[in-house]
Specification:
Jelly Rolls, 408 residues, 32% strand, nine-stranded antiparallel sheet, alpha+beta
């Protein structure tokens, strides 16, 4: 068991306060801090603090994969940590994006390797050969666009805007209110020539303004419409603004999670959360970004089936009904995420020895006991527990919250 120092990623959509404040650093930070990576991704591995020295977690795993990963993880994923844990802070919307399936990632990676595209090229789509299922859990209210909405509800939204120029598109979806209709409409909008887009989008934004000026009782889609207006202001002339009208708009309250499998189009809009995913950096973008957009490749990986019930709530871990450990159920074999809530009534949690594991304290302060070793984690601090380490006990003097990631 060792303290783990995460790697900060600075992107324009990040926050100058959220991650820095949680980690106890001065605010505002010098740059927008978007993500804190906790794991062994080659692009930005975390560092183990061992005495007065630091060691890359990636290097430590490479030197002793058996001790760090254990036989079960190695049997499933080789000598590679299969998950990546993050803090994610969005002050501005992320790009409209989706992630490939395992088969699509392997094929795409091999294709771009054969084409000789450097892995750090800005036009590279596949930086590794892994899929990227992901789960985000809100620490604050967290706003998301995720998955295609039921087409019938989208027809209601588009009609509510009362924009004559939308009638043709409404008829297209109304005549085929299923995944095929969504594919046809999305493809039409995302590939609109700039002159057509430049004519249609302002009319839609004007319709949004009119809608929000109407009676409050008639504004059923106020949240969706406000999002379209905000995106239109941030990304003028971007076809992703049109595409956003086809997606579920979801608000996660603290503790609620959202699981996204391969192919689900999404964009995180605002908030602070804990995110765990397969250890990959493969992203196919469709808009709302100055970064590389590859619409044909995105269309190859998208899942146009309407997404229903994506919000996940944690349930008590097996054998701990009423206890402090709560698990988020997902089908991903690469990761499992738990939330540990310690109070005066439940001041301790036994986590067992099923490593490898990363623990992140998000409120309060906890003491970890692993065999004869103890380690105190303050808010924003994290620890690495290797597979060969003894079982871990987490205790707290007052209320505290810890997230734990391990292999699924």
């Amino acid at each position: 068991m060792h303290p783990l120092q995460g790697a900060i990623r600075t992107y324009a959509w990040g926050s100058r306060t959220a991650i820095a404040e949680l980690c106890g650093r001065p605010v505002p930070s010098n740059h927008p801090e978007a993500e804190l990576w906790l794991g062994a991704h080659p692009a930005n591995p975390s560092r183990l603090l061992i005495g007065d020295s630091e060691v890359s977690l990636l290097a430590a795993i490479t030197q002793d994969p058996v001790g760090h990963l254990g036989t079960r993880a190695r049997a499933g994923f080789g000598d590679r940590l299969p998950f990546l844990l993050k803090l994610l802070a969005a002050d501005e919307p992320l790009s409209l994006q989706a992630h490939p399936s395992a088969a699509q990632a392997k094929e795409g990676f091999a294709r771009e390797e054969a084409a000789g595209i450097p892995r750090d090229s800005p036009v590279r789509n596949y930086r590794d050969d892994s899929h990227k299922p992901e789960l985000v859990v809100a620490l604050t209210r967290f706003e998301v666009l995720a998955g295609f909405r039921d087409p019938r509800r989208t027809v209601e939204l588009l009609r509510a805007l009362d924009v004559p120029a939308l009638e043709h598109y409404i008829a297209l979806l109304e005549g085929q209110p299923d995944s095929s209709g969504l594919r046809a409409l999305f493809t039409t909008w995302i590939t609109l020539p700039p002159p057509a887009l430049g004519t249609l989008l302002p009319q839609i934004l004007d319709g949004c303004v009119r809608y929000l000026s109407g009676p409050a009782e008639a504004r059923e889609f106020a949240g969706e419409v406000q999002t379209v207006l905000g995106l239109g202001e941030s990304y003028p002339g971007d076809a992703g603004v049109l595409a956003s009208m086809l997606l579920n708009r979801i608000t996660l309250e603290p503790g609620e999670g959202l699981y996204l499998a391969a192919g689900n189009l999404h964009a995180y809009l605002h908030g602070l959360g804990v995110e765990v995913m397969a250890n990959s950096d493969n992203v196919l973008r469709g808009g709302l970004t100055p970064k590389h957009v590859d619409v044909p490749e995105l269309l190859r990986v998208l899942d146009f089936e309407p997404l229903t019930g994506p919000v996940r709530t944690a349930t008590a871990a097996e054998g701990s009904a009423g206890g402090p450990v709560h698990l988020y159920d997902t089908p991903a074999p690469e990761f499992s995420l738990s939330r540990i809530e310690l109070t005066a009534d439940t001041p301790a949690a036994e986590l067992g020895s099923a490593g490898p594991r990363i623990l992140l304290c998000t409120s309060g302060s906890v003491t970890l006991r692993c065999g004869d070793d103890t380690l105190v984690l303050a808010r924003g601090e994290s620890a690495w527990i290797a597979a060969s380490d003894p079982p871990v006990t987490v205790t707290a003097e007052t209320a505290a919250q810890v997230f734990g990631a391990t292999v699924g």
